Amino acid sequence: MSWLDQVQWDAQGLVPVIAQEQSSGDVVMFAWMNREALQKTAELGRAVYFSRSRNRLWFKGEESGHEQTVHEMRIDCDNDVILLKITQQGHVPGIACHTGRHSCFYSVLKDGQWAAIDPVLKDPASIYK
């Protein structure tokens, strides 16, 4: 059995993926991979996801230049979640979120409301053309 066959794919053939910055430990994003994306990620050492909205492979940074170098791939105890230890490329500090922030997890629950607490590092209009 290959390592790809050990992954517990969901009914759509996808597995959830968490991207964690290797240097800081920050969780910068959550995405999905299909079998091809996971295989390409392992082969290239670069994060390749599956975009459900576009219904195709999404090479992280293909439009923004904010690629993710993958240092390590881990799987959880149930074989149904992948953790990528990455370095976020393209900007210092790294921008993983399409909003121009370091992390997609930039809002915190305060007094019953979600509040954005992390700054925009680069205007998204200047990232995506």
UniProtKB/TrEMBL annotation:
Subcellular location: Cytoplasm
Pathway of action: Amino-acid biosynthesis; L-histidine biosynthesis; L-histidine from 5-phospho-alpha-D-ribose 1-diphosphate: step 3/9
Binding site for Mg(2+): D76, D78, D80
Cofactor annotation remark: Binds 1 Mg(2+) ion per subunit.
Originating species: Comamonas avium
Residues that span the membrane, as ranges: none
Source species, domain of life: Bacteria
EC code(s) of this entry: 3.5.4.19
Assembly and oligomerization: Homodimer.
Cofactor(s) listed: Mg(2+); Zn(2+)
Primary localization class, coarse: cytoplasm
This protein's name: Phosphoribosyl-AMP cyclohydrolase
Protein's job: Catalyzes the hydrolysis of the adenine ring of phosphoribosyl-AMP.
Record domain Phosphoribosyl-AMP cyclohydrolase: where: 29-106
Keyword presence, RNA-binding: no
Keywords associated with the record: Amino-acid biosynthesis, Cytoplasm, Histidine biosynthesis, Hydrolase, Magnesium, Metal-binding, Zinc
Molecular functions per Gene Ontology: phosphoribosyl-AMP cyclohydrolase activity
Family stated for the protein in its record: Belongs to the PRA-CH family.
InterPro entries with a match to the protein in the record: PRA-CH (IPR026660), PRib_AMP_CycHydrolase_dom (IPR002496), PRib_AMP_CycHydrolase_sf (IPR038019)
Catalytic activity: 1-(5-phospho-beta-D-ribosyl)-5'-AMP + H2O = 1-(5-phospho-beta-D-ribosyl)-5-[(5-phospho-beta-D-ribosylamino)methylideneamino]imidazole-4-carboxamide
Residue numbers binding Zn(2+): C77, C97, C104
